[in-house]
């Protein structure tokens, strides 16, 4: 799947391992779109924690080597394959998945994973949409079955998924609490939809959340770091409350009895389990949010492609993250 005589720069992973396996190659053939596919000139590509897990070789998804990471692309349609009817050359778009990888100057995606990018958003913001916003929507509605009026705690609210969750939950009528680890992070959380923000570095922050929630507890907790917080989450829940596990980096010991008295639930979420209908529903809701103006991705650190190893280190090691990390091309 390549265009004769056209070359591009792209990150190539020849072996699983540490961030230094991310190598920038200057002479990768530009892919060609097949039937039902779109070729996109990449202007920006999001960086996500899941890409570091895949790169390490420790994730349950293992692409065939060599491969180019990345799925959250924003750019301009460069060419379309046969039977593509929704897009034409020159259209501004973003993707929820790529076939050939997003850490590259060009990428191919299936037509049904490509969405129009409204002019209100720039390409960096477009690259911040896919995994963060579609994950947050899936967690809040598809998995938690959230309803307006419920209390939502976004545990780790200053990162890409967290900010997306705060904006969506506020727009849909939830009472929104968020946590972050720095003063800047707390301000960002409040500016992006949370009614209240709590510093998870404070020793008594769990008590403060309990007090803010009142006697009924938290209905839904969107959890970005379950290996640290899950035990406390179970104590915070309301009757029938749900912890939605979005991120986890290790083991934790919990007492399952905590789920019994309240008939609470621990539910895992992963975007890759979405059906085509799930993608289309979330896409329609999120594009509506862009048009209405409440969906406004916050961009964090920006990197050129050659800094891919540094970006992978930073997204895992940095504390108090604010906004979405992206590559710009």
Q: How do the helices and strands line up, and which of them pair or pack?
A:
Blueprint: E1 7-13, E2 22-29, E3 37-46, H1 49-56, E4 73-80, E5 92-95, E6 106-110, E7 114-116, H2 123-126, H3 130-143, E8 151-155, H4 160-171, E9 175-180, H5 183-191, E10 196-199, H6 205-213, E11 218-223, H7 226-236, E12 237-245, E13 265-268, H8 276-292, E14 299-303, H9 308-317, E15 324-328
Parallel strand pairs: 8-9, 8-11, 9-10, 11-12, 12-13, 14-15
Antiparallel strand pairs: 1-2, 3-4, 3-6, 3-15, 4-5, 5-7
Helix pairs in contact: 3-4, 3-8
Which percent range fits the helix content? 25-40%
Percent of residues in β-strands: 25-35%
SSE string, helix = H, strand = E?
EEEHEEEEHHEHEHEHEHEEHEHE
Q: What radius of gyration results from the CA coordinates?
A: 20 Å
Backbone structural class: alpha/beta
Q: How many beta strands in the DSSP annotation?
A: 15
Low-confidence stretches: none
Q: For the report, how would you describe the main beta sheet?
A: 7 strands, mixed
Q: What's the helix count?
A: 9
Global morphology: globular
Average predicted confidence as pLDDT: 94
Distance between the termini: 22 Å
Which features characterize this protein?
single chain, 329 residues, alpha/beta
